[in-house]
Design a protein that fits this description.
4 helices; 4-stranded antiparallel β-sheet; alpha+beta; Jelly Rolls
Length: about 160
């Protein structure tokens, strides 16, 4: 199915983005499907794509020595998966696995970087949205760490 600007306009991540910018972005996108338990990408691999989740859930994980892959977050409907493609050296800093069957809009990272380089207004709009996602993920991680540390704190009252 062809990805159009009107279709992109319904995505929470892109809602309210100018139509001309959505037209350009639509040309970098395709629809993909991943079966449950499919590794979409792994920590350290080259980051050349990113995804907006249309259905299903994706687990984000990191490889912890001695423990294997540890889930650090989940992304569902409307969520964005992947931002390591934006800045050099373009390698994933974590991994992603589909928890359920997933349909997503997949974007060509180089094409989006080219759009950012060619159009300052697009770059500012797009990266502002992307950094809001990064901010949210960092706040979620902070909350999980505080909760985990509080539960194991040597200062906890028994």
């Amino acid at each position: 199915m062809e990805v159009t600007a009107s279709r992109l306009a319904t995505e929470p991540f892109l809602r309210g983005m100018p139509s001309g910018q959505l037209d350009a972005l639509a040309r970098t996108a395709s629809e993909v499907m991943f079966p449950a338990r499919h590794r979409i990408f792994a920590d350290g691999e080259y980051a050349d794509k990113f995804w907006l989740i249309r259905s299903g859930y994706v687990a984000l994980d990191v490889l912890v020595p001695g423990e294997g892959n540890v889930v650090i977050g989940r992304v569902g409907l409307g969520g964005l998966v992947g931002w390591s493609w934006l800045l050099p050296p373009y390698y994933w800093a974590f991994g992603a696995v589909s928890v359920t069957d997933v349909t997503a809009l997949q974007f060509d990272a180089q094409a989006v970087r080219d759009l950012c380089a060619a159009d300052r207004e697009f770059r500012d709009e797009f990266t502002s949205r992307l950094f809001q996602v990064v901010r949210g993920r960092l706040l979620d991680t902070r909350t999980r760490l505080i909760t985990r540390l509080h539960d194991t704190s040597p200062y906890a009252v028994a």
